[in-house]
Amino acid sequence: MYGWNGKLLRVNLSKNKAAVQKYDEGIARNFLGGRGFAIKFLWDELKPGIDPLSPENRLIFAAGPLTGFALPSSGKLVVAAKSPLTGGYGDGNLGTYAAVQMRKAGYDAIIVEGKAKKPTILLVQDRLTQFLDAGDFWGLNSFETERRLREVYGSTAGVLCIGQGGENLVKFANIVCQRGRAGGRPGMGAVMGSKNLKAVVIVGSGELSAAYPKDLKELGSEAYREILTKPPYAFWKRQGTMMTIEWSQENSVLPTCNYREGVFEKAEAIGGFTMEKLKTSQRGCPNCNMTCGNVIKDSDRKESEIDYENVAMLGSNIGLGNLRRVATLNRIADELGLDTISLGNVIGFAMEASEKGLIEEKVSWGKFKETKALVEDIAYRRGLGNILAEGVRFAAEKIGGDSSRWAMHVKGLEASAYDCHAAPAMALAFATSPIGAHHKDAWVISWEVKVGRESYDEEKVDKVIEFQRIRGGVFEALTVCRLPWIELGFELEWYTKFLHAATGLKVNSEDLNVIADRIYALIRAFWVREFGKNWSREMDVPPARWFEEPLTKGALKGAKLDRTKYDDMLRMYYQKRGWDERGIPTKTTLERLGLKDATKKLKKHVKLSE
User: Fold this and answer.
1) Is-contact 104 448, C-beta < 8 A?
2) What is the reported pTM?
3) Summary mean pLDDT of the chain
4) How many CB atoms lie within 10 A of CB 29?
5) φ, ψ dihedrals at 525, nearest 5°
6) Is cis: bond before 552, omega within 30 of 0?
7) HEC string of 28-50?
8) Residues paired with 281 in a beta bridge
9) Does domain 237-417 have CATH number 1.10.569.10?
10) CATH 1.10.569.10 in the chain, residues?
């Protein structure tokens, strides 16, 4: 095989054993890597109904056939497991040296099962795998953990670790690397913590083998130069995703006070131009020349790497209009290993619950000190923090009242930082994302603002599916970053050229769409298998607030989603996907995508439509 290593590392923490295993070439051709590998392995190996925090769950680190080559933004890694937050498929994407080092060590994936008897560090050095005592590391935050490990294994070692949030099994704990690069929103850090796995350290010394190495090298050099010529590049380098604060405010989609509104009176104070005045440096993922991590000094005079999502969720969504203080909350969350999107969501929920008298604790909008204390309470599961650590869906069930109407999640995963009162296509994207309410798979809101927000038409359904195929399918499987394409207009044709030069595989966009559809269908089958008869199309419906409570401020005052029209969109989405009226892939669709085995397994849990 070229491009792929053709090998994965299986690790059993219960037995302190590791084994190198070859995998079938058909898996590579049909699923490519990254998310594709992750869902394939989870589908094949997990028994339905297992506890996500049990030793039986698999924690998968998977790269793609382009990962680690000298290609734009190719230093990416997917981490996946059955999610403790949602109960369905969960994954996340990290830009990390671990991706490059894992590939150089000779592996396309690492599959971890079992539970270590005591806190453990997994050390992978090429073909040597060791299980190190992490007793002195347990209780340390992610930054300190990584600092100590890099002192031993070097500045370019791949280090993936958890903070106290993961140790304490916070359901939205994530995995952290490089002082602020984080991934695994649906609780991948909690899965890691449940296995007593404090960190994974990877050091590789091998070379990746390409089908056409000379062509690949030339393509990579040309592509890096091409990115520099794109008109948006200069401004991107200045602000990165932080430019989205002003854009969201202008277009009334900036989540404010638990998504009540789409505009924030202090938006300018937390926006991209304010960030530029405070910026001290930039950070990026390996192999990237459009670095998006903007670093500022926070209110504690410590460095914090910020971007749009964490600033919106820990700023406007909780009523906090001071960027240095927002950055402090962000940095503490990264240290503790808490996903900033879900964190800002549960805090906004708690503030509204406090305002409405549903909880005794006083948590007020925009109050920095009490919010900072609450972040730490969540990580250590103290008091109210223990309830919020379970996620907003559970918190709403626990607190009661009408709070489930304004618990902002889909399938248990808290919504990303885009208000959808007046964005039906983005609402559909959130609702049908394969991990819950996440923007990564189909960020259609910018396109939707341009073409018009009022419609619920076929064009919008087509665009959601198109973006899911490209962003959530192709990019997540290759595994490379989508930002050069979506932000700079770097042409998609580059990636078929990269894939051919790396692997020898000749594919076109239609071939990649089929692979993407296969991945999405198998992820959907995983969800349905887990929920069985409890599965319903209501799981693909966005939060009630967007349908029931119109905006009261801004240019779109009075806007809200129309449930009947949304249902029509969802029905159309199912039809185009080849799924039935329940949102379950039909037998014909599964077999057309080469998933006959999935058909047999799924029939044991639900009745399949033909």
Assistant:
1) no
2) 0.97
3) 97
4) 15
5) -60, -40
6) no
7) HHHHCCHHHHHHHHHHHHCCCCC
8) 295
9) yes
10) 237-417
Q: Strand pairing of 109-113 and 181-183?
A: unpaired
Nearest to 431 by CA among 527, 496, 348: 527
Q: What string of DSSP letters covers 402-419? A: TGGGG--EETTEEP-S--
Q: Which CATH architecture has domain 419-489+508-610?
A: Orthogonal Bundle (1.10)
Helices (H) and strands (E) in the chain, counts: 27, 17
- Evaluate whether 320 touches 371 at the Cβ level (below 8 Å): yes
CA distance 59 to 67: 19
Closest CA to 80 of 477, 412, 427: 477
Q: How many CB atoms lie within 10 A of CB 452?
A: 10
Q: In whole angstroms, how far apart are CA 382 and each of 169, 305, 385?
A: 13, 27, 5
Q: pLDDT tens across 267-282, in order?
A: 999 999 999 999 999 9
User: SS3 letters for 57-124?
Assistant: CCEEEECCCCCCCCCCCCCEEEEEEECCCCCCEEEEEEECHHHHHHHHCCCCEEEEECCCCCCEEEEE
525 close to 602: Cβ distance less than 8 angstroms: yes
Evaluate whether the domain defined by 7-203 bears CATH number 3.40.50.720: no
Identify residue 37 by its one-letter amino acid code.
Answer: F
Q: Which letter does DSSP use for residue 469 in this model?
A: I
Angle, to 10 degrees, between the axis of helix 458-467 and the axis of helix 424-432?
Answer: 40
Closest CA to 431 of 446, 451, 409: 409
Structure tokens at 230: 């794109």
Tokens of 192: 């890691």
3-state SS of 582-597?
CCCECHHHHHHCCCHH
Closest CA to 56 of 64, 45, 65: 45
Residues 6+ apart with CB under 8 A from 414: 172, 341, 342, 345, 346, 391, 392, 408, 436, 437
List pLDDT tens digits, range 198-227. Answer: 999 999 999 999 999 999 999 999 999 999
181-183 vs 175-177, strand pairing mode: antiparallel
- Find out whether 153 and 101 touch, Cβ atoms under 8 Å: no
C-alpha 222: how far from chain center: 29
The two structure tokens encoding residue 422: 């007046």
Task: Answer yes or no: are the C-beta atoms of 88 and 530 closer than 8 Å.
Answer: yes
Query: pLDDT tens digits for 363-418?
Result: 999 999 999 999 999 999 999 999 999 999 999 999 999 999 999 999 999 999 99
Domain with CATH 1.10.599.10 in the chain: 419-489+508-610
